[in-house]
């Protein structure tokens, strides 16, 4: 008996077959899913909370990706676009987030085969089986999904949740528990050199986090520091070293290696004051700034700044999925079969083995987390990985088990890996 024979196939009834696949989120991976569904002639609806495609990417549009164009465009989406006369930008150049939206994602969303299926301003507040909560089992797999938005409810044969994690940042606290709201605490990747310049110029900023979002913000702050006297930069990380932004000659994504090398140089030159091994236990609003206190190598430690940038990573918002039967790893909140590949307690590699519908399967037949949200709290997601996910899942939905089970992606190696990466900051 072959592996394909043992693999669960999509179940179809006449009623399910007449229903669309619902894709939650019109970001890069959600739109890639739409392209694959359109290409295979499978009816679908994309529900997007914002009024435009890729709204999260637009928020950090000033930031340059470390992946080149050839690594951030889905192959099927490219073929559909090229059929309309679209041309790929310079393949070896890394785009900014704004360029990614303007030159790729918006044109993709505007393709007639996709645009007619997108519903904007439709934030998903819940997903369930029609007439069933999560405790009911009888005939569950043959019952349509119900996707609820404030504008109404949709029935679906399958659901791909590509809603991302950008709106759900991790806490500054080492415990992960919620902390204060204060306008002086910034979301990750603020526009330091653009619309938010006055917020940072001539002030002391603490950047909390050990990933690439932190690195990008530190680099922008150093550039600002050269033009705005009095600008001070502190980089605060939880662990002894920032493994994920360390430069490596073996990193095949050159832009990623360059990020780490630049930050290393700024620390060595004294432009950035790096404080490692800082466990934040309390965040307080004070007249003179945001006060962070906790421990450092067993001793009490504290630091105050005018602005704090929370670049500690993200987590999935699972509240709308309370009535769906998910199988999530207890540590990183990723699908159980995917979690060992991405758990930062095991390794910090940015390169993850390509994976598809098998690793993303849940007990709820026909439901998938894809893209950033499929990685839970792990910080190593690449767009190309998300494109491979939806390629495999859509092939599975089409009943093309050979394609669904085949790996059609080779990812670049990071050259950076550790076994003690710890948490996200």
Task: Explain what this protein looks like in three dimensions.
The chain has 425 residues and is an alpha/beta fold. It is built from 15 helices and 16 strands. The strands form four sheets. It has a five-stranded parallel sheet, covered by helices on one side. It has a five-stranded parallel sheet with strand order 8-15-9-10-11, covered by helices on one side. It is globular. Residues 1-6, 247-252 and 414-425 have low confidence and may be disordered.
Instruction: Describe the largest sheet.
Output: 5 strands, parallel
Number of strands: 16
Our count of helices gives: 15
* First-to-last CA distance: 46 Å
Class derived from helix and strand content: alpha/beta
Spatial order of the strands in the main sheet? 3-2-1-7-16
Which regions have little confidence, pLDDT < 50, spanning 5+ residues? 1-6, 247-252, 414-425
Percent helix, as a range, is: 25-40%
Oligomer: single chain
In short:
With 425 residues, this protein is of the alpha/beta class.
Features:
single chain, 425 residues, alpha/beta, 16 strands, disordered N terminus
């Amino acid at each position: 008996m072959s592996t394909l024979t043992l693999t669960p196939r999509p179940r179809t009834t006449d009623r399910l077959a007449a229903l669309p696949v619902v894709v939650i989120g019109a970001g890069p991976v959600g739109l890639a899913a739409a392209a694959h569904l359109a290409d295979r002639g499978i009816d679908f609806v994309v529900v997007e909370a914002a009024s435009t495609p890729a709204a999260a990417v637009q928020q950090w549009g000033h930031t340059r990706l470390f992946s080149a164009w050839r690594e951030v465009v889905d192959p099927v989406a490219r073929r559909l676009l090229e059929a309309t006369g679209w041309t790929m930008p310079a393949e070896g150049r890394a785009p900014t987030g704004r360029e990614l939206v303007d030159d790729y994602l918006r044109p993709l969303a505007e393709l007639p085969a996709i645009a007619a299926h997108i519903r904007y301003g439709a934030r998903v507040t819940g997903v369930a089986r029609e007439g069933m909560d999560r405790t009911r089992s009888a005939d569950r797999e043959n019952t349509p999904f119900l996707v609820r938005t404030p504008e109404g409810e949709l029935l679906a044969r399958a659901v791909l949740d590509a809603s991302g994690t950008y709106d759900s940042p991790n806490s500054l606290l080492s415990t992960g528990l919620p902390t204060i709201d204060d306008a002086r605490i910034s979301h990750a990747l603020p526009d330091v050199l653009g619309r938010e310049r006055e917020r940072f110029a001539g002030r002391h900023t603490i950047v909390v986090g050990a990933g690439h979002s932190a690195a990008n913000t530190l680099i922008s702050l150093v550039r600002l520091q050269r033009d705005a006297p009095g600008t001070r930069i502190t980089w605060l990380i939880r662990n002894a070293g920032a493994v994920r932004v360390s430069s490596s000659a073996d990193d095949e994504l050159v832009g990623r290696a360059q990020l780490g090398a630049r930050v290393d140089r700024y620390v060595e030159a004294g432009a950035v004051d790096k404080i490692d091994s800082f466990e934040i236990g309390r965040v307080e609003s004070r007249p003179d700034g945001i006060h962070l206190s906790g421990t450092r190598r067993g001793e009490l430690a504290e630091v105050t700044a005018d602005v704090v940038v929370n670049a500690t990573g993200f987590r999935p918002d699972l509240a709308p999925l309370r009535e769906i039967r998910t199988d999530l790893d207890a540590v990183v909140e990723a699908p159980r079969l995917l979690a060992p590949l991405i758990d930062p307690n095991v390794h910090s590699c940015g390169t993850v083995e390509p994976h598809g519908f098998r690793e993303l399967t849940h007990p709820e037949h026909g439901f998938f987390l894809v893209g950033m949200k499929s990685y839970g709290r792990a910080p190593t997601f690449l767009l190309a990985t998300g494109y491979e996910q939806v390629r495999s899942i859509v092939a599975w939905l089409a009943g093309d088990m050979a394609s669904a089970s085949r790996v059609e992606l080779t990812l670049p190696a990071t050259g950076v890996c550790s076994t003690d990466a710890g948490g996200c900051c």
